[in-house]
Design brief:
Chain lengths: ~325, ~425
């Protein structure tokens, strides 16, 4: 079955709403409008208002309502339009969702799923394009996942719903058009393990989200220069599956981290630090890092492209590391 | 445990020469340590009173492990760590933990041209810091250099017994940093059937490999009439017991030392793409060991000795080299090397230069040859003197001048 990323998200959402009786979707424009990225298009008509609820324009209020519903026994799926807007609900996410299990002495889990879009590449400028998943990955008590493939876009939600703790899913806005051939039957995704998307021997590229695609494009070109790159998709940014990339670095002896977040204090910094701590004696070169330029994402197309990591940048960075 | 060579990362304490309560001065021998190459006496660099021995005889410990605690003038204000690390396991992490070398320290050392293996941290129980490297740079001339090496290359080198110092600066990484691909492969085919290479053989192999890989040698030979020298020796040695005699080798060493001082272009090292003249003439003397292998102890300031003291120095280092009683400081710092296979009936020998030196002088055996002197054919004792020199540093004409000088000195033994 040929699906694009958007249709895969919708398929996963529909599957969850139908098969988990306690699940419902809520958020701005998710019902009558079909979702601002059309992920939930048609679901209100098919499944009814008990399953799909439009909310007022108050991220803090509807995320808080989701937390209450989760504590009360439901399995809410809350959609926030973009990660930039999620900051309005950061108090609820950080001070309530992530901490209530701890603050209640283990009495109240918060089995909440929050979906939001992240990332740049579509000229939506500096208030709709950032990649702040790294900020959320800093917070103990949350699980942070980022589907980079069509299969993960469809399967991650079901696994996330089964998690007794809050899970934030970061859907990349520039990936909605990618397509893949998937089996009819939805396959749940293992959120505990990173995925080796392309095996290789000379360097380990650790990435996620849009970085996966830039890295895979680069890995296609690199054999022409005699370099075989292994590309690892983190999938889950918290907790990090360090075993997978450390095992890889132990074989390739070189690592490059590619991310769309800003460089300073980002996920890439964390991964690079772990490699430095755990795989130091395996390293044959300093760990390379590629990230978005440390600027607000520009509106102008050429400036936006220049700010983001492109496949050519990955090729150049791999060359620099391999030497 | 001192580092007695760039490739040493552990040593076995063979004997204590001091005990608690003994007063030691800088330069005193305090212990004997067994390395891959031989037993070496350990000098102390502090003055004070031995308070405590921290390592038992027979124990193998990592380089950098405190062997003893010495109370000196500063003891009251700055207590030295007293805890010896336990004998180390074989894992690479542990062995390197014996001497923590952070990437920053290695980068600084590479940039400043400081040999990390020769450094002692300011705090003997702690790791090397940047300040140690900076201090070493301030106090030492940049004649020794150790390039950077990646952590993985270091681990592999440790596992394969490769001396990284030999590869130093010749790696394919930035600024000659040694990477894993620069290390020689170990034979995976031989597997467990092949006996492990004798450590000394391996060390010689690495040094010679580096020499032939890096140094473009040129070779010159000269036949020297020894009639005068042999005659002089006969007079000098007449009536003396064997122990008091002077050997031709001593005259040959004197001739080389004086010629090296005169032709300074051959006396020194090739470091980082340029020749660094030696400060003084320090002769490396190749000594073949009875059990196989070689050592090259150094006779320091050989140009300032006379024949008698040259003979004494030669007997001393040969005897102690064969007994395994050389000090670490006596095995490094040569500015030119002499090899002599005359006793084995070899007529001439072309040596392989010991990096980073730029020349090695070879002496064959004393052979009677027909020489033409004053229009007549006569039979004289002669020797073939050869020079192998680094063509990066000098050209053949310099080498020729050097050999002529050696020849003319041996023709006037009274001036030696």
């Amino acid at each position: 079955m040929k699906l694009d990323y958007r249709a895969a998200l919708r398929d996963g959402l529909r599957h969850a709403l139908i098969n988990e009786p306690r699940a419902f979707l809520m958020g701005e424009d998710v019902g009558a409008y079909g979702g601002c990225f059309a992920v939930s298009l048609g679901l209100l008509e098919e499944l009814g208002e008990n399953k799909v609820r439009d909310t007022p324009l108050s991220e803090s209020a509807f995320v808080g309502a989701g937390i209450g519903a989760a504590m009360g026994g439901l399995r809410p799926i809350v959609e926030i339009m973009t990660v930039n807007f999620s900051l309005l609900a950061l108090d609820q996410i950080m001070n309530n969702a992530a901490t209530l299990l701890h603050m209640s002495g283990g009495q109240f889990a918060v089995p909440l799923v929050i979906r939001m879009t992240t990332g740049a590449g579509r000229q939506l400028a500096a208030q709709h394009s950032h990649s702040l998943e790294g900020w959320y990955a800093h917070i103990p008590g949350l699980r942070i996942v980022a589907p980079a493939t069509v299969a993960d876009a469809r399967g991650m939600l079901w696994t996330a719903l089964a998690d007794p703790d809050p899970v934030l899913i970061f859907e990349h806005a520039a990936l909605f058009g990618i397509t893949d051939d998937l089996p009819e039957e939805l396959e749940p995704v293992d959120l505990d393990r990173a995925a080796v998307r392309r095996p290789g021997t000379d360097i380990t590229i650790v990435t996620y989200g849009s970085g996966l695609h830039r890295s895979l494009e680069a890995a296609e070109v690199l054999p022409g220069e005699g370099i075989s790159a292994e590309v690892i998709d983190l999938r889950t940014l918290r907790p990090l599956d360090s075993d997978t990339y450390l095992e890889s670095v132990a074989r390739t002896h070189r690592a490059l981290v590619v991310e769309e977040g800003w460089r300073t204090g980002g996920i890439g910094a964390e991964v690079a630090a772990q490699i430095g701590e755990e795989a130091f004696w395996d390293l044959d070169a300093p760990v390379g890092r590629l990230a978005t330029a440390e600027v607000p994402i520009p509106y102008a197309q050429h400036l936006e492209a220049a700010a983001l990591v492109q496949a050519d940048d990955v090729v150049a960075a791999v060359r620099a590391v391999v030497g | 445990m001192p580092s007695l060579g760039a490739d040493m990362d552990e040593g076995t304490l063979v004997a204590w020469r001091v005990g608690p309560g003994d007063v030691v001065r800088r330069g005193d021998i305090v212990a004997v340590v067994q390395t891959e190459k031989s037993d070496i006496e350990v000098e102390v660099f502090e003055a004070g009173t031995v308070a405590e021995l921290l390592v038992d005889v027979g124990t193998t410990v990592a380089v950098g492990t405190p062997l003893a605690r010495i109370e000196g003038e500063r003891a009251a204000e700055q207590p030295v760590a007293t805890k010896a690390t336990p004998a180390r396991a074989a894992s690479p992490q542990r062995s390197m933990a014996g001497r923590v070398l952070s990437p920053l320290v290695r980068r600084d050392a590479a940039a400043l041209g400081v040999d990390l293996a020769s450094l002692q941290p300011a705090d003997p129980s702690g790791p090397l810091h940047r300040s140690d490297v900076a201090a070493a740079r301030r106090t030492r001339p940049a004649t020794l250099r150790s390039g950077a090496a990646s952590p993985y290359a270091r681990r592999l080198a440790s596992e394969r017994g490769v001396d990284l110092a030999v590869l130093s600066g010749s790696g394919s990484g930035p600024a000659g940093a040694v990477l894993a691909r620069d290390l020689p492969e170990v034979s995976s085919v031989a597997g467990s059937e092949a006996p492990p290479l004798d450590p000394m053989r391996a060390a010689i192999a690495r040094t010679m490999e580096r020499s032939n890989r890096e140094i473009p040698h040129y070779y010159l030979a000269h036949t020297v009439d020894l009639a005068a020298s042999v005659g002089w020796l006969a007079g000098r040695n007449a009536g003396r017991p064997p122990a008091g005699r002077i050997l031709l080798s001593a005259l040959e060493l004197r001739a080389v030392a004086l010629a090296a001082r005169k032709v300074g272009e051959l006396n020194g090292s090739w470091v980082d793409g340029r020749f660094v003249a030696g400060e003084g003439v320090h002769l490396g003397v190749i000594v073949a060991l009875r059990g196989g292998g070689l050592l090259a102890p150094v006779i320091r300031d050989a140009d300032r000795l006379d024949v008698e003291s040259t003979m004494a120095a030669l007997s001393d280092v040969v005897e102690r080299a064969r007994r395994g009683a050389l000090r670490s400081s006596e095995l490094s710092g040569a500015t030119i090397t002499v090899t002599n296979l005359g006793e084995d009936g070899v007529e001439e020998i072309y040596g392989v230069i010991h990096p980073p030196q730029v020349a090695i002088v070879g002496f064959g055996g004393v052979i009677d040859r027909v020489v033409a002197t004053e229009g007549r054919a006569q039979v004289h004792p002669t020797v073939r003197v050869t020079l192998a020199a680094d063509h990066r540093a000098t050209d053949g004409r310099i080498g020729g001048r050097f050999l002529s000088k050696v020849g003319s000195l041996l023709a006037q033994p009274g001036k030696l």
